[in-house]
Design a protein that fits this description.
Layout (H helix, E strand, L loop, with lengths): L1 H22 L1 H44 L6 H10 L5 H11 L6 H14 L4 H15 L5 H12 L6 H14 L3 H13 L5 H14 L3
Helix pairs in contact: 2-3, 3-4, 4-5, 5-6, 6-7, 7-8, 8-9, 9-10
Length: about 210
């Protein structure tokens, strides 16, 4: 008797499942089709992304080789194109190359390229902070106090590993302008910073003891 009941329950359950699939056939087909399309779309996207990375790598390497060999005509445009592609690997490399080799003399152009990396490129947090620091370093030779502080503010107000570097840059900036009290304040901030960079801390201590102890 119990076996008969179990068989009836199993048949009833199977019938319900069968009816469910028949009733929702169109919806299930659509869902399966969407899942298949998403899977194919993902793999196509990865393939295109990898292809684009390879092309950027080739363009970057070719530009560097051309520059070294003396063929510098199109290097600026090619590197700017790489930066504007907003690739997290080659866009920063292209900007560093332009700066290190003085390919672009206009600070406005360089700062525009910095802003593309900082504001529009998907970068890891500390990579972005490094680029902000490099922007501050680049601008420290000619920018006003307020503008330099504004550039470095995202790092100074954070717990970034680049915070010690930013504070030291500001200390040196004010020291170069003979504003010794301001310089000392920034060097002291490095010393009391909980997660400071040991080498930067040592340099800050040396600067205070040697030049700002009076």
């Amino acid at each position: 008797m119990d076996e008969d009941i179990a068989i009836i329950n199993t048949n009833t359950r199977n019938e319900k499942i069968k009816n469910f699939f028949i009733k929702n056939k169109k919806i299930l087909i659509i869902l399966v089709s969407i899942i298949i399309l998403l899977i194919f779309g993902y793999f196509i996207y990865k393939e295109i992304d990898q292809s684009n990375k390879s092309k950027l790598a080739e363009k970057y390497n070719t530009s560097v080789i051309n520059y070294i060999s003396g063929n510098k005509i199109n290097v600026e445009n090619e590197m700017v194109t790489i930066i504007e592609s907003k690739n997290k690997t080659y866009s920063p490399l292209a900007l560093y190359f332009l700066i290190d080799n003085n390919v672009i003399n206009s600070s406005n152009k360089i700062n525009r390229l910095f802003d593309i990396l900082i504001n529009e490129t998907k970068l890891d947090k500390e990579i972005k902070n490094l680029i902000i620091y490099k922007k501050g370093l680049y601008n420290s030779e000619f920018e006003t106090e307020n503008n330099l502080l504004e550039i470095l503010k995202p790092i100074i107000n954070s717990e970034s590993i680049w915070k010690s570097h930013a504070l030291y840059l500001l200390g040196e900036y004010f020291y170069s302008k003979n504003e010794k009290q301001k310089a000392k304040e920034f060097f002291q901030k490095i010393i009391i910073l909980e997660n400071n960079n040991p080498k930067i801390k040592l340099e800050a201590q040396k600067r205070i003891q040697r030049d700002l102890s009076g």
